[in-house]
Write a structure and sequence with these properties.
The complex is a heterodimer.
Chain A (H helix, E strand, L loop, with lengths): L3 E9 L4 H14 L3 E7 L8 E9 L10 E6 L2 H7 L3 E10 L13 E5 L1 H8 L5 H13 L6 H9 L4 H22 L17 E4 H11 L2 E6 L6 H10 L6 E4 L3 H13 L3 E6 L1 H17 L3 E7 L16 H6 L8 E3 L4 H18 L2 E7 H5 L1 E4 L52 E3 L13 H13 L10 E4 L5 E7 L4 H13 L4 E6 L1 E3 L3 H9 L1 E8 L5 H10 L5 E5 L8 H11 L1
Parallel strand pairs in A: 1-4, 4-5, 5-6, 8-9, 8-10, 10-11, 11-13, 12-13, 17-18, 17-20, 20-21
Antiparallel strand pairs in A: 1-3, 2-3, 2-14, 7-14, 12-19, 16-18
Helix pairs in contact in A: 1-4, 1-5, 3-4, 3-6, 4-6, 5-6, 7-8, 7-12, 9-10, 15-18
Chain B lengths: L20 H14 L7 E5 L14 E4 L5 H11 L4 E7 H7 L1 H10 L4 E6 L2 E2 L5 E2 L23 H7 L4 E6 L3 H13 L4 E6 L11 H7 L1 E2 L11 H10 L4 E7 L6 H4 L17 H9 L3
Helix pairs in contact in B: 1-6, 3-4, 5-8
Classes of the chains: A alpha/beta, B alpha/beta.
């Protein structure tokens, strides 16, 4: 019996690889296992190798596994491309149809299962995925009845016969595999899970759900990988709440439309990836100087330009902090788990209205698309705060004087009135303006308004700006990361501790304004600081050096080949530096 | 009830004396009063350029955005508060050069807003460069030998993109312009009004006198029917786009807001932000 294993299914894109992984993992999630999935895919609709790697565990896991226990292959390319990941003693379950072969001289066992033939005999070759699911389940020692509910949900609308045929295919795959395994049947049997009901979702689901919970009722967006799921989810769900999603002509329209919507009083968002964010930069400055709230999600992918559109990277950091010409107040958040992505979205809308500025929620491909088990989200944690939004009646304006929308206040935040409100008329402009909103180039006014805007974030209230796992007052090393590297760092940290090292871990959740007060003592109390990030220039490390200092003890572990960090890579590279 | 004077404020426009935009300002103020609006019920969203300043010269809500993006901002405002009357405004550079993509798609989308373009065939605020509306041979600082790019046949383009309300006017004719803006506001869907608004400083070709000589009023064309799209296109082509009046209106087509599924009949800006526990549980259950 084992407590966790790593399973991967691969084949040609468009062949149903997705659904194989989906059915397998939904069933396991319902049994109470913790899952973490990561898809390898290309920027094309059909053809090209694709795979879905799923880690199954009886405890929470937040990283893909270093190696692989089971590889399910629908073609030889899958074996050739992924074989090196298989651990000693691992197995390959491949469709007998293509006469699979594996390299000689390894301790990996190949089981050729006639996925296609079994499926064809049962009615249609399309069900070969189900045969593979059944075969996999036999290895794990799962009762295949667990699939009944899932298959019913997926195929129910196609009729009971289809449901039964698919169940038959799963059963046939399991039976065939059991015979093949013979005496080896116990080697990869999974320990029983706790049976608790948990959510199973990708980061983008949590981001979209968090937007709804945070009161967003309008979205404007342009399709892009890996952000589109956010728009697609909201298109399905917002109409039931009276809201709407507009797919715009480009990201400039998406951002400016969301700005217009927020100005007029609805909580609105846009979401994109690097190329879209680059187009939005001028508009972000407009939101900054007009003090219009807006929430923008950036699901980072490989850059620059089109870069690696379907691959993992964290290289938009500097652009998100500094992007737009001129200087504006801006908040950049970086959730590190799917749960945090949900709660952070709710908070992003609150902060945007409280501080009347753009809020960028920074995700990355691994967080946005990695499907994982999530502890149920809590309704009671949802709170709506609207800051200095004027809701009561206003006294008449004298001599058509404008309402002082940009009144210089101690905290820099001015009362905000929505268009349509009697006696609240004011002007809004991206030109420097006076308290009334009217354009003004007077030097003293310019300084007063710049200072007012930049003062707003001086005392920003943010819950947990740094996620800390700090066990040692004095550490040999402080490992720092952000967004989806959290799981790999946590596992590497455990291994480094086993080697006798004192390791602290800080995951930065508020990127800008940088939480210097939180980070400084952690950096000071460590002999060495290693910043783990998925870019080539060490952007987070530079931000830390700039804000916290201690450049001499800060070094970087970088990865920018498009693939997520594996725990052993973080471990090995940290070891080299220590 | 508000009169046009209630839509005036005390800001002195920074337009040159004689600029055509003054009439557009006056026409918006009159039209707003004539259709029965109070100043707080109107939001003018404008672009960048001389004409873009107009949102600050009317006593109403106003948002002066970034170059070329008045339309997406205006559409966002309308989507957030469908009770507001939303006018987008800007110049020919704003709408037909940098913002052309938005113009085409705002037309297709047909959200219920009114777009007024102050077309002077030149870039004025940057002190005299060619515009997509400048004629071939037009000499400017950026076309010292005369423009070799043909002017956009903008009304034909707007019509072929599927606009449901297309009008053109001349800033000298305050009466017609006011009427067309009123009709545009009343139209259920996207209305576009192109206004020949001469630049007295940088455009010495397309002057007030030039327009008086070259424009044909549709009211002088016997049997002109603005519900006939084919006739509208033929008339535009015959007169090289130099006509004024209501060129085309489709009163049957529903606006975007009336077509999309589920969209709230009350302003989204007034929506309850807190999800009910019941709705939350329903959404969560889908991921279990």
């Amino acid at each position: 019996m084992i407590s966790q294993l790593s399973w991967k299914v691969g084949g040609q894109q468009g062949e149903g690889i997705e659904s194989t992984g989906e059915i397998f993992s939904i069933a396991l999630n319902r049994l109470g296992y913790y899952l973490y999935g990561y898809r390898h895919f290309s920027s094309r609709i059909k053809g090209g190798h694709t795979n879905n790697k799923i880690r199954v565990s009886t405890t929470q896991v937040r990283s893909i596994a270093d190696d692989l226990d089971i590889l399910v292959a629908f073609d030889q390319e899958t074996i050739d491309f992924n074989f090196h990941e298989l651990r000693d003693g691992g197995i390959v379950i491949a469709d007998a149809k293509f006469n699979p072969t594996i390299p000689e001289g390894t301790n990996v066992t190949l089981y050729a299962v006639p996925f296609t033939d079994i499926a064809t005999n049962l009615g249609t070759a399309l069900m070969k995925n189900m045969v593979a699911v059944g075969a996999s389940s036999a290895v794990l020692g799962l009762d295949i009845n667990v699939y009944q509910e899932v298959v019913q949900e997926i195929f129910g609308r196609k009729g009971q016969q289809v449901v039964e045929k698919n169940m038959e295919a799963i059963r046939a795959g399991a039976e065939f595999m059991k015979e093949q395994l013979g005496d080896n049947i116990q080697t990869m049997k999974l320990e029983k899970a706790d049976g608790k009901k948990r959510m199973f979702m990708i980061g983008n689901d949590a981001i979209a759900l968090g937007a709804i919970a945070g009161g967003a009722r309008f979205m404007a967006a342009y399709p892009i990988t890996p952000a589109s799921e956010i728009m697609e989810y909201l298109i399905k769900k917002l109409p039931a709440l009276g809201g709407a999603v507009i797919q715009t002509e480009d990201e400039i329209a998406a951002c400016t439309m969301a700005i217009g919507a927020n100005y007029a009083g609805v909580r609105a968002l846009t979401a994109s990836a690097g190329p879209g964010l680059s187009l939005m930069m001028e508009a972000i400055g407009l939101a900054g100087i007009t003090e219009t709230p807006i929430v923008i999600v950036d699901t980072q992918r490989g850059g620059p330009s089109t870069g690696l559109p379907t691959k993992q990277e964290q290289s938009d950091l500097m652009a998100m902090i500094y992007g737009t010409h001129g200087e504006i107040p801006k908040i950049v958040m970086a959730p590190s788990t799917v749960q945090e992505a949900f709660y952070d979205m709710v908070e992003a809308f609150n902060l945007a209205e409280e501080y009347q500025c753009p809020v960028i929620v920074l995700s990355d491909l691994q967080l946005s698309l990695g499907k994982q088990t999530v502890e149920p989200l809590e309704y009671d944690k949802i709170e709506i705060r609207r800051g200095k939004l004027v809701t009561g009646e206003l006294p008449p304006l004298e001599n058509k004087e404008n309402f002082k929308r940009y009144e210089v206040t101690e905290d820099g935040i001015s009362p905000r009135v929505l268009p349509g409100t009697p006696n609240g008329i004011h002007h809004v402009t991206g030109v420097e303006h006076a308290e009334t909103g009217r354009p003004s180039e007077v030097a003293s006014n310019r300084k007063a308004q710049m200072d007012k805007r930049l003062r707003k974030l001086k005392n920003i209230q943010f819950n947990t700006p740094v996620h800390k796992n700090v066990k040692h007052e004095e550490a040999d090393v402080l490992i720092v990361g952000f967004i989806s590297t959290r799981g790999a760092i946590e596992e590497a940290m455990e291994r480094l501790e086993l080697d006798g090292l004192k390791v602290n871990h800080a995951h930065v959740r508020l990127i800008h304004p940088f939480p210097t007060d939180e980070m400084l003592p952690l950096v000071q109390s460590a002999k060495k600081v290693i910043v783990v990030e998925q870019n080539a220039t060490g952007q987070l490390a530079n931000i830390i050096k700039m804000n916290v200092g201690h450049a001499d003890k800060i070094s970087s572990v970088l990865k920018y080949d498009g693939n997520p960090f594996l725990p052993h890579e973080v471990y090995t590279k940290c070891k080299e530096l220590l | 009830m508000a009169t046009f004077k209630d839509f005036r404020n005390d800001v002195k426009p920074n337009w040159c004396p004689g600029c055509g935009d003054f009439s557009v300002q006056a026409a918006i103020q009159r039209a707003a009063a004539n259709v029965g609006l109070e100043p707080h019920q109107l939001a003018i969203i404008s672009g960048i350029g001389c004409s873009g300043r107009i949102s600050g010269y009317v006593h109403s809500y106003g948002f002066h955005g970034i170059h070329g993006r008045a339309l997406p901002i205006a559409q966002g405002v309308k989507m957030a508060n469908r009770d507001l009357t939303v006018i987008a405004a800007g110049g020919d550079g704003d709408g037909f050069a940098i913002g052309m993509g938005h113009t085409i798609h705002a037309i297709r989308r047909n959200i219920d807003i009114t777009y007024i373009v102050m077309d002077n065939q030149i870039y004025g605020l940057t002190k005299g460069q060619t515009s997509p509306r400048s004629d071939v041979g037009f000499k400017t600082k950026s076309t010292p030998q005369g423009s070799v790019e043909p002017a956009l046949s903008i009304m034909e383009m707007v019509l072929s993109a599927g606009a449901t309300f297309v009008a053109q006017s001349f800033s000298s004719d305050l009466k017609e312009l006011t009427y067309l803006i009123e009709e545009g506001i009343k139209h259920k869907g996207f209305s576009l009004i192109n206004v020949f608004s001469p630049c007295v400083t940088y455009n010495k070709v397309n002057t007030y006198d030039w327009f008086k000589e070259n424009l044909t009023s549709l009211s002088t064309i016997e049997g002109y029917d603005p519900s006939d799209r084919m006739m509208a296109m033929q008339t535009l082509m015959k007169h090289k786009g130099l006509v004024t009046g209501l060129i085309y209106q489709n009163k049957e087509q529903k606006s975007y807001q009336d077509l999309i599924h589920g969209y709230s009949e009350t302003p989204l800006a007034h929506a309850e932000l807190q999800l009910s526990k019941e709705k939350f549980d329903e959404l969560i259950a889908e991921f279990m």
